[in-house]
Amino acid sequence: MKMIDQKGRLFGLINIIDLLFILIILFALVGGVKKYQQKVPVAEGTKEGTVTFLVTNIRQLSIDQMVIGDQIYHYDKGGLLGSIEEVKSEPYTDRLDYQGQWIEAPVPDKYQAYLKVKVDYTESQDAYTVGGEAMRVGSEYRLKTKRNTFYGTCVDMSVLHQDK
């Protein structure tokens, strides 16, 4: 029995051109999967810490809905950050140009809140990861609880215990 018959079929079963086409498709699929597969950085273990977020230009109603003990999540990815430990609020001030000088004036009925959140984070070479997302001081994050959503800027990160 010949390997390729007169009709171009391999072992009389499948056309050699069809076989090449199928192999090319398989190699393309395997290559695409390997290229876009994300590698998770290897971390030593989780550590306990706190992250403080500054939430600005909000109403008192929003502050009242930030309850100590509530879980806080990333809005887009849904990853759990941790639980709210402390909420401090103060009047929100904005910079205004008054007679050629910049002054900070309070905005009526607007506040800013500092949220202290107890988190479990992993430390890699590139970043601290909290809730599946890199956390950096100065970056703004869209956050949510079961009661409200808001944008918060990370203003402080600290370690409570080394290893959990």
Detail the topology: elements first, then pairings.
Blueprint: E1 9-10, E2 14-15, H1 16-36, E3 46-58, H2 60-64, E4 71-74, E5 80-98, E6 101-123, E7 128-130, E8 133-135, E9 140-144, E10 149-161
Antiparallel strand pairs: 1-2, 3-6, 3-10, 4-5, 4-9, 5-6, 6-7, 7-8, 9-10
Please describe what this structure looks like.
It is a single chain. The chain has a six-stranded antiparallel β-barrel with strand order 3-6-5-4-9-10. Strands 1-2 form a two-stranded antiparallel ribbon. It has helices at residues 16-36, 60-64; strands spanning 9-10, 14-15, 46-58, 71-74, 80-98, 101-123, 128-130, 133-135, 140-144, 149-161. The protein has two helices and ten strands, in the order ββαβαβββββββ. The longest helix is centred in the first third of the chain and has 21 residues, at 16-36.
How confident is the prediction overall: mean pLDDT? 88
- Helical stretch count? 2
How many separate structural domains?
Answer: 2
**Computed Rg:** 28 Å
Ends distance: 67 Å
Q: What is the total tally of β strands?
A: 10
* SSE series: EEHEHEEEEEEE
Uncertain runs: none
Kindly report the oligomeric state of this protein.
Answer: single chain
Question: What general outline do the C-alpha atoms trace?
Answer: elongated
Report the helical percentage: 10-25%
Order of neighbouring strands in the sheet with most strands: 3-6-5-4-9-10
Main β-sheet description: 6 strands, antiparallel, barrel
Structural class: alpha+beta
Strand content: over 45%
